[in-house]
Structures are given as structure tokens and as C-alpha cells.
Records
---
Amino acid sequence: MTTLVNRPKGDAQTAHAELFTPLRVGSGLSLSNRLAVAPMTRVSATADGHATKQMADYYETFAAGGFGLVITEGLYTDKAYAQGYLFQPGLADDAQRDAWRTVVDRVHAHGGRIVAQLMHAGALSQGNPHRITTKGPSAVLPKGQQLAFYRGEGPYRMPEAMSADDIFEAVEGFAQAARRAQEAGFDGVEVHGANGYLLDQFLTAHTNLREDGYGGSLANRLRLTEDVIQAVRRSTTERFVVGVRTSQGKVNDFMHKWEGGEADAAQIFGTLGALPIDYLHTTEFEAWRPAFGEHGPSLAALARRHVAVPVLANGSLHDATQANGVVARKEADFVSLGRGALTHADWPARLLAGKVHKTFDRGVLAPIADLANAVRYRAELHLSVGGAPALDR
């Protein structure tokens, strides 16, 4: 198969050169450029969580289109309370692991690298065939409504508070899923600590009312994330990349901000930076905007102050000028695209060739944000497969 050579020419070399320089992540991952595909939920697996041929085709297009790194949609980690959506893929058993091998091989065939995002939905689970109840840090009803484009309807269910055994099971699920990811040939894993899912629920004061060692102070509320990352690191080899994603906003609480502002950011990023991670992925609506108020550094820039590992920035960076600027100003080391990548799987190649990037069309989300709908929608418009969930950027 043909692999794109990511070397900018002419005007692209001058305007966007920062995006096309190689990057080393951890001790075992060399990326050909600074462009990654963001994790985006596509609810297109089989009912039992197996990756499909359609998914392999989908992920392959990004590597063929010039992205140096592809991060998968969130993969559920256990068959207890982790699954968030019906037809979500998983890494909760060996059969699911084996189904990912073709996807990984197809990405590698084009010189791309691929990381599996590991996700536990916690109290935001709206489609889990393994359990009829949900669990989170505390019995607190989540804000907002279930996501209709992921087959949800109405308010979220009231979760049960997790016991010590539930917490142990969740941590072990992340660890075993990471082990399976390495066995499947992935280049690394990304621990999903963002967007309102389980680890973020523990971090957030109003969803975590616990009175044990996992609740109360910010340090305690970060403890589950620490436990998960340590367990994932122990279950994989040293050269296997381990990243973590964090955010302020959530799928059900888009405008949420950390209560302590920059002081909380310093503690959160300082804690994460002291863990055995190889990169930190931050996501905001617009990655270059101040994280708090009208002035000040962005969330990615704050992360970069407090961690020694590469920072991956996400948030409306389908604007190539903004993407290049974030890297050029050293607010982040590389960037991930959601809407841009799904509008054009060959976004990097188009940028190098000076082609126009079309505007993302939300029509691909209706009625379900899956690959089958995207294929139908794009066929009608005579465009390539695309589409992205509302909060994927």
C-alpha cells in the first residue's frame, strides 16, 4: 500500500511547517508529523463489541490520508459497568482484542500509528447490555439528557455509588484492556479521563460526594485516575505508550470549568505529570482560547507548564492556521482533529496540496452518529465518508 510522504512543499512549508515535523512520544513511538485523529464515538461495532470491516476501512482512511497518529473511539474496558453506548466497541475480552488486529494492521500498512482509547462511562452509561443499573462515584443524578445520536433518550438514570470492590474491578478492567491492546498490536493506549466519564466524575466535586479516600479534596478525587494509570503501566511493557485525556467540559455539561481555575489546573496537571505517562491530551471547544476568563493561557498551555511529556491539544483545530499556531507558540507539541478529520480523512494531504477544506456538516449525525449513516449521507452528496459526534472536535 502507498504511504504518503509528509513533507510540506511551497507555501505549505512556510505556513504550516510546524505540523509536519516528526515527533517522538515516549521511548517507543515515532510519529511522522504532529497531526492526530481525535477519538470519536461512532457506535458501529457489533452488538457484542467487536470491531468490523467497515471500522477497519474507516480507520485505514486516516492513515492513508497522512495522519501520523490515529486515536480510536472510546473502547469499554469491562463487562460490568464500563460500557456507555450500544454498539460501542470494547477491549473487555480476547475476542474483542482479536477483532482489532485487522484495524491495527491496516493503519500500520500506511505508516500510521494507532492508540486505543480506554473508556469507562460510569454514571453516563446509556446503553449497557451487561447491567441494568449504572454506577458512579456517588448517587448523584447526572445533568442533562442522554445523547440521542448515540441511541439514548430522556434523562440519565440515577447511578449507584461504587463500592470498594467496584472501584477495584474498574481499575483492573483498565489494566486488562491495556494488556489486550498491546497484544492486538496497538502502539499505545489513552486513558479517558475527560468529558464527564467515570474518571472525570471522580474528579468533579458535584458528582463526587464520597467521604473515603476517593472523595473530598482534589488530591483524593484524582486518586482513581492515578490508580488506573499505575495499573495500566504495570500491565504493559515500558515501550508501550500510555497517554491520558483530560478536559473541563463534559458531554452532559459542556460549559463546566474547574472551580479553582489555574490553581486547580496546576494541581491536576502536576499530579498527572508525575505519573508514568508518555503524553497528555487536553480538549476544549477552541484549544487556543484562555482556559479561564477572557485572558490568560489556554488549557494546553497550562498543561505544558506542568508536565515534561508531549501535550496533545484538541479543540476546533481543523483551522490549519490555529493548529499550526498552537504548535509554533509551544502551547502544545501536537494536535488532534475531530470534525476536520472526519470531513476530510486526507486532511494532512489536502493541506500539503493546497486544497480547500470543506466545512463540517452536522447532517451526518442524524439520526444516529454511526458509520452506516455517514456512508449514506456522504453518498448522497458524492463526498467521502465523514461525520463526527457533537462534542468531538
Note: The CA atoms of residues 36 and 140 lie 35 Å apart.
---
Amino acid sequence: MAFAVVAHYRCAPADESTVRAALLKMREHTLDEPGNLAYTVHAEADVPGSFVLYEQYTDRAGFDAHAAAGYFDELIVRTVRPLLTDRTVTFAQVL
């Protein structure tokens, strides 16, 4: 069964361009992963520094492989997360 991730990220407006660039670079890598079905980055309308990510993987193992990738550590763990003022992540099974 497919596995989905919905993440809401918020950063200071001054960090928005750095976070945006890292998320778009992350999208490039993720779309090439064999277990990835979708990786969409949204900038929330009318809320500077707010992003919504929708990710879909073939299964939980596909997501786990994604999270174990070196570029995930570089772009998400070391670049994006330190700049966030708020972060929520929802994991779901696709029906």
C-alpha cells in the first residue's frame, strides 16, 4: 500500500529563499528514487516562509530509503530544519 507524507514547514521570511532552494533541490533528487511516486513542494499563499510538501512512496520502506539518503541529511536535516520556526509532519496510508 502506498505511503504518504504531508509536511508543513514555516521559517522566518528572511530564510525563505534558502529553504525554498533546498526543498526544490530535494525534489530533484527524490523524484529519481525508485520508491518515490510524488514529491510536490508548495509555497503557502499569502504566508511568507510557509511551505507544504506532499510526498508519496510505494511503501514505508520507500520513505525510509528516502530519509536515509545522504542528500536528505544535507538538504533537510542540516539546511532546512535548523531554519524552521515550526514543523509538522503527518504520515498516512494511501487508500
Note: DSSP finds three helices and four strands in the chain.
---
Amino acid sequence: MITRIRPATHGDLPQVMEIYAIARDFMRRTGNASQWIEGYPSTVYITEEIGAGHSFVCENQDGELVGTFCFMMGEDPTYKKIYEGEWLNSDPYGTVHRLASAGKEKGVAEACFRWCFEQCPNIRVDTHRDNRVMRQILDKLRFTRCGVIYVSNGTERLAYQKVV
């Protein structure tokens, strides 16, 4: 059970990177072999994210890190243009990126999104078309699929939004 979500620290970095490695392996095993390739996200990238205050970790009742994610408030440049649809609104929003679980606890994604909605009632998120697990989570949590966006490397992502 997730009992605490807090900002990641530089001391958490080895565990955070291990969680991302576990998540990359899980994605490959579940049919999503083309997302998070070539070591993405890198240690340098996550170090910068921790420094900027955008990286968060989930702890279980024993204080063990069991999940990690990025949460940012404000406009995400990759969300400026949306294709094959439109956003639900143009109100200020939070964005969730790089959500990953160590696979040790159920409900990590739900706990992360619940926490994010406590910070902001308007959340946007995107995922790879082949990421069936994340797509199922977003459907279960009643996110609306709004269209398609393209990330900085030019690859397509399915774009979702939910307002509570």
C-alpha cells in the first residue's frame, strides 16, 4: 500500500533509476518495446528533474520506494499542438510523465494520480500507443483520450486529460 508521496532527493537516485529499469523491462514483456529505449530516462535527465523539483517517489508502509513519476504544473511545450482531436479545456493544468512502478505494490499509478489531482484538478498525460497497461489505467481512471501529440524526438503519443 502506498502511504506517502514525496519529492525525490538526489539520495533516491539509485533506487529511482532501478525502478525505471524494472519498468523498461516490464514494458518490453508486455508488448511495448519501442518506448523508453536507449536507457531513457537517463540518470542525467532524472538528476535535473530532481533538482527542478519535478521528480516524486512513492513509498510503501515500510518506507520502501515502490514508484516514481514526474509532475509539473504549467504549460508543456509538447502539448501546444494536438492532432486528431482537442484538449478538454485550456485552463491551467498539471502534467504527469514517466510514471513507473517497481512492481512490488498494487495501485502505484492510482496513488500517483490521486496525489496529482490533490495538487491540480486538471491533469494531462500522454502515453505510447503500444503501452496497453497505461492505456488501461487511464481508461479505468476515466481519463478522456483527446488526440495525438508528438514528443521532442518526433514520435507519436496518445494524449489524455481529466478534470475533477
Note: The chain has a mean pLDDT of 96.
---
Amino acid sequence: MTRQSLKEFCYQLPKVELHTHLNTSFSDKTLQELVDRKAKLDDNSEYRSWKLTFTENDNCPIDESFTLFTFLHKIFNDEYSIYKLTYDIIHEYAADNVKYLELRSTPKDVPETGLTWPVYVDTMLRAVRDCRAEEVDIVVRILISIDRRKGVDVARQTVSLADRYLHDSDGIVVGIDFSGDPQVGDATDYIPVFQSAHEKGLKLALHLAEIPNFEETLNVLKQCHCDRIGHGTCLNQPSPGDGRKELEEIVLQKKIPIEACMTSNVKTKTVRDYESHHLDFWYKRNHPVVLCTDGKGVYQTTVSNEYLQAAEAFNLSRQNLWDLSFDSINHTFASDSVKSMLRAKWGEVKSKMDISPYGCNS
């Protein structure tokens, strides 16, 4: 099979995307428009000189990545930009044959632009509903993010906001994302917040073990519910005699799905290369993994490209790729009726695709 035919197969494959951050998932076109607009509004051409994406051979350590994200937040800081990002991102994922998308973001208060937490979420919801009214072929759900840099009090307020929208968004807001710079703070401090969110019926997607912070990850997984793990880069890196094997066993026993973001991890240097990615470890153990982009704009990737990279790195067959995609439906935060609808949609597509039994790299 040629690389081009494999690439085409990955594009044609119906896909699920469960780990997408709003502020890093722009297209080049959308970013350019919003940068130009911001430069004009602020009368400051400095915005145009910022390097805001990583091209094919670029990489950036994780701490430098979070510095870059602060620049992006300065550009995306009003209602217009949040709507534009959400609306365009939904269309772009749909164009990549993504049929179900969970979009996550941390609400902002920006007094000078009139942005508040409720306005932020309402603006995202308006974009989702406008895309639905246009009959864009994608189901979209929203996770409201807790930034671990902001502290527990802010996290509690975030859960309260998410709880309100859980009951007042026509099923669009479904849960909580826990993210932010993993080098800041201790996730253990947030355990009561996670427990409260779970009790309220909010789904939990938690960034854990993105770096080797073993103790906090173990404490979180022992003491509270976790529906999915974001990244999980260091879950399976035990050192002899220090008890870290216990962490791996908890994840396997509880079958907690892992949101695998291969390109993001390679470009932020949390893994050495695609062939070293922990996706292989979990996949070989029949553990649930979902291929995701993290921030398709910053890391210059697509969901189709993530399937391509996985196929080439681990010699996955077309059937393997199909199964990965289809199984991802099980790990969405969608209702049972939506999951059934998605499975039927996959079934309709499968009869039209050539799913050969041989390895993609053969």
C-alpha cells in the first residue's frame, strides 16, 4: 500500500475527536484573520511577529508551549474571536470526516472586552447551534475546563458553572476537563472538586501523567472517578521497586480510556518520536485508546494525520484503524442514543470502504 492510499483511507475513515482545546485548534486561515483583527484593534503589529504554530520539523518543550498559549489568549479574548474559533473549528473537523467532536475550553473574564464566563460559554453554544442549524455533519459536545494553575476555589466555581449548563444547554455541555501546565500545582488538591463534579453527573476528562508526576496521578486515580485520561504519557513508565507498577495496574483494571495525542507529544518532547509513543503499549494490551489532536492548529495536524502516524509507527492494518475509530464511540461522553446513531453511521460508511486485512506498511 502506498503512503498516499493509506493517507486517503485515513481521511475517508469516519472519526471521533475527544481531546481538542479551543484556543489551539484554529486553522491557519482563522488564525491569520484573528491576528490581523487584533493588531488593528490594538494598533499593535507585534501580534503578527509571534510564532504561534509548529511546522513539520518544529518542536517545543512543554514549558515553552504554555508560554506560547499565553500569546494566543491575548488574541482570542472577546466574543467575536471565541465565536469565530468555535464555528470554524467545527466546520474544519467536519471537513476531516470527524463525526463527533468534544471541544474543551477554560472560560475567561476579560472586562475590557466584555467577556465573562457565562458569555464565553454562551458564545461557544451559539456557534455549536448555528452549525447544527446549517446541518453540518458532526455532533459537538463541550467540556468546560479547569485550569490547574488557577487554584481550587476557581475550580469549584468552574464546576458550578458546568453544572448549570449541564442542565441548561440541550445536552451540549457534558463534562469537565482538567488541564493547564502540569508543572504547576498538585492535582491531588483538586480531588474534592473532581468528586463533587462526578456527584453532579458531570463527566471527567483529566490530564494526568503528562509528565512524570507519579504520586499525584496515583492519588487521583485511587480516590476519585475518572472517565478518561488526557495524554497519560508517563502512566506506563514504572521504575523497579518504587511502586509505580501499581499505577499501570489501576488504569488497566479500571479500563480508563486514554486520549492519545501523538503529534502533540512528539512536538512538545514528552515522547522521543512516534515509534516510542505509549499508544503502542496500551494498544497491545487491548486497553481503550482514542487518537486525538490536542491542538490541531498549534501542532499542525488533523485527526486523519494522527491515524496515519499511528498506522506507520505501529504497522496497523486498515481493519486495525477501523476498529480504533469504531471503538472510540464507546468512550465519548454522548448519550446512548447518540452513540447508537454514530454506530449506525459507521455501519453505512463501512460497506463503501476497502478494509483490507494486510498491514498498512506492507
Note: The first strand starts at residue 15 and ends at 21.
